[in-house]
Amino acid sequence: MSLPFVPRNVKTKSKVKKPPVIAHNAEPGPSRLPPPKPDEKPALDEKPRLSEEDYTTLVTLALSDYALFSDPDLRRKIDQSVEKFISLPRLLKSHDLPETPVAKALRAHASDTLEVRMVLSAPVWSSWNAHGTSKDSHMFDVRRKIPPSSSFSREGWKQRTIYIENIPVQYISIHGIFHLIHTLIAGCSTPNPTSDRVQGISFLSHHLDKPGDAPKPKSFALVTLLNLEDVRLLLNDWPWERTDTSRTSPTPEHEAAVKFGLRALQKERWDQLKEEYLAYRGELVEQMAAHQNNAPRPASIPKRGRSRSPPPQDNALSHDSPFPPDCLIFVKHVHSQTNKTTLRSLFSQAGSEIDYVDFNKGMDTCHLRLATPLDARKLNTWFSERRLTQDAGLDGTGVEGGKTPIEMELVQGRQEELYWEKVPAKVRFQAVEKALGSGGAEQKQKKRQRTR
Predict the structure, then answer these.
(1) Residue 42: CB partners within 8 Å, gap ≥ 6?
(2) Burial (0-12, 13-18, 19+ Cβ within 10 Å), 298
(3) If we measure between CA atoms, which residue out of 366, 394, 365, 400 comes closest to residue 382?
(4) Is 60 exceeded by the pLDDT of residue 222?
(5) Cβ-based neighbour number of residue 215 at 10 Å
(6) Does residue 342 surpass a pLDDT of 50?
(7) pLDDT at residue 266, rounded to an integer
(8) pLDDT at 95 over 50
(9) pLDDT for 280-326, tens place per residue?
(10) Tens digits of per-residue pLDDT, 252-285?
(11) Quick check: 173 and 217 in contact, CB under 8 A?
């Protein structure tokens, strides 16, 4: 028996949109926005957008008289150009800024002091991305309309450099400090008041920064001015030891400087205080090291059934040793601005195998971990015979006859144990294995001689 054929209805009914129902008795009120989604967060890592005046400030400082004096590479590149132009990316390499907005800002705000030209060259296909847009790749050149002045010497620029501290947080940037200092010295009547009264602004590097890293903006910086009158004004108005805190604030910049406690100091005096601080810190480090070395060792009660193992000796080095003995050297009188790479090159002259250089920038001492006790004795003997001095931070060879020659001391006893206790266990194990591997051939040779 066959069932009757029933056709399917393939036509869907059209949905009719109903008009919204409006309540006639509803009272008018302010509209309310829907609450934000929980996954929508403000972008906190976005860089603040710079204005055209900020762009102009950065380029003006990069081409100032002081910048050309203190950067021989920049001065040489400009001298090599017949028309004295320099590429805009060369000036902005430390700021990572696009060329086109900067060139537009210079033409609008610095046309009387700087000249900008567009570079016509073949396109560089490597600068195009997948979306078909091109990144800036040397599109503009810039040069000064007024030749730089060479009337100032190194000592003259040093007299015009000051150290400022407690900068208001809203002005902690190159362009922010430029605006702040210009406002603070606006009342000083100089013989030729110009817009280039601030010649240079530089942040100071931290002693933990790696070599080559750009210093991060902080609340203190070095500022170089053009006129000595401006230097005296800042030193008088914002002294290092300020007693009068109830001063008038004619501008918001003055008000912020008073609030945060801005103060200024001559750079020469700041260098003296820095040397005193480094010397005092070195004395404290030596006192702490001597105290740890002379501290009495706490008595410990051995556990029942276990005998306390004696401290490892050179002839008793095994895979179970907690550290390689007689492989640690304490070094004094290295340059405080040196780095680990330079120290490794300096100490490798003795022919010893250096496992690790334990050094913190800003200190004049360090520890050296040698591969074997033989390497440690060889290094100590080599430097005690030559009495070398590290003349500069990047001096990797040393000079003889200096005032404070490098001194070395083989670390042993309790002081050696305290040092290795702070080293991770994995590193200590690797050091022991390296010492055993380096001296393995000698130990095997001695063992063969005994068996014969």
Answers:
(1) none
(2) exposed
(3) 400
(4) yes
(5) 12
(6) yes
(7) 93
(8) yes
(9) 888 888 888 777 666 555 554 444 444 444 444 444 677 778 888 98
(10) 999 999 988 999 999 999 989 888 888 888 888 8
(11) yes
Query: Could you write out the three-class secondary structure of the chain?
Result: CCCCCCCCCCCCCCCCCCCCCCCCCCCCCCCCCCCCCCCCCCCCCCCCCCCHHHHHHHHHHHCCHHHHHHCHHHHHHHHHCCCCCEEHHHHCCCCCCCHHHHHHHHHHHCCCCEEEEECCCCCCHHHECCCCCECCCCCEEEEECCCCCCCCCHHHHHHCEEEEECCCHHHCCHHHHHHHHHHHCCCCCCCCCCCCCEEEEEECCCCCCCCCCCCCCCCEEEEEECCHHHHHHHHHHCCCCCCCCCCCCCCHHHHHHHHHCCEEEEHHHHHHHHHHHHHHHHHHHHHHHHHHHHCCCCCCCCCCCCCCCCCCCHHHCCCCCCCCCCCEEEEECCCCCCCHHHHHHHHHHHCCCEEEEECCCCCCEEEEEECCHHHHHHHHHHHHHHCEECCCCCCCCCEECCCCCCEEEECCHHHHHHHHHCCCHHHHHHHHHHHHHHCHHHHHHHHHHHHC
Looking up tokens 């008793």 gives 316
Residues 199 and 226 sit within 8 Å (Cβ to Cβ): yes
The answer to whether 258 and 247 have CB atoms below 8 angstroms apart is yes
pLDDT tens digits, residue range 104-120?
Answer: 999 998 888 899 998 87
Average pLDDT along the chain:
78
pLDDT for the residue numbered 122: 52
Q: Is 60 exceeded by the pLDDT of residue 133?
A: no
Rounded CA-CA distance 16/11 in Å is: 15
The Cα–Cα gap between 365 and 175 comes to 38
Which pLDDT score, from 0 to 100, does residue 443 have?
A: 47
Distance of CA 335 to the CA centre of its chain: 18
For residues 22 and 358, what is the distance between their CA atoms, to the nearest angstrom?
77
Question: Model-level pTM?
Answer: 0.54
